[in-house]
Design a protein that fits this description.
Length: 256
């Protein structure tokens, strides 16, 4: 895999600061629709099965990102897919690098969510998930990987379903190119916040900047339908009067 500039994000539990290694390069998906799949059979300690995780993905995209009115991007919950066991056990970064993405975990397209129990990825239970766009061409994201902490001591298991939806939505935000927000009412705030149910203004501004909705360009007019339309004979008479007036003016000029 070619080396590239990347974003790598942790989401930590309440009031714990996030480690945020990211760049200022605009990285986006080229297509208007991006699918979020779930890796099959790796979630054993987060209190939900694959099908429920996929259902949470559906709520995360529909209740949050798909409600941004000024963004062209639409996300959808995809399928439960079989992937290599490395997605459950391996480090998201190549060893002995400044987190160059592990080429064995490159996501071919869209977004893949997997449970992972690697201690290097999750050295403590407060880290709920990590995300990295790990398949990039130029400034285009081809694929991104989200890992949920599946170690026995994880705190994801202790969250309510609504909180899990918000956590997954937050990670999806990173997967589509957004960084952390310093604004506390934003979904992309660096730490989890209870009762998060919608995007904040900063979230909407961010996704709209990365994925602006193109407005059609056209010329138009408005007609007053209540205005009485002139009939044919009235129009003809007005035209004849104008012609007669112009003819009279011409004759007067010729006489002078």
């Amino acid at each position: 895999m070619k080396a590239f500039i990347f974003s790598f994000f942790f989401l930590l539990s309440f009031k714990t600061f996030a480690l945020n290694f990211h760049n200022s390069v605009k990285l986006v998906y080229a297509q208007n629709e991006v699918t979020v799949n779930v890796a099959k059979g790796f979630c054993t300690n987060i209190g939900i099965d694959d099908q429920e995780l996929l259902s949470i993905v559906g709520d995360a995209v529909n209740n949050f990102w798909n409600k941004a009115p000024t963004s062209r991007l639409k996300l959808r919950a995809g399928n439960i897919v079989s992937v290599a066991a490395a997605y459950e056990t391996d480090n998201i970064c190549e060893p002995s690098t400044n987190c160059e993405p592990n080429s064995d975990l490159a996501v071919g397209s869209g977004i893949l969510i997997t449970c992972n129990n690697n201690i290097t990825n999750f050295p403590n239970s407060a880290i709920l998930g990590i995300t990295i766009p790990n398949n990039i061409s130029g400034g285009t994201i081809l694929g991104a990987l989200i890992m949920i902490n599946d170690r026995a001591t994880n705190q994801f298991d202790t969250k309510s379903r609504a909180e899990k939806v918000a956590i997954i939505a937050h990670e999806i935000g990173h997967a589509i190119g957004l960084g952390h927000s310093p604004v506390t009412d934003s979904l992309m705030y660096y730490a989890t916040v209870q009762s998060r149910t919608n995007l904040g203004r900063d979230d909407i501004d961010g996704i709209s900047y990365l994925y602006p909705k193109q407005q059609p360009v056209s010329c138009g007019s408005i007609v007053d339908v209540n205005k009485k339309k002139p009939d044919f004979w009235s129009g003809l008479l007005a035209g004849l009067l104008i012609i007669a007036g112009l003819e009279t003016l011409r004759k007067k000029r010729n006489w002078s």
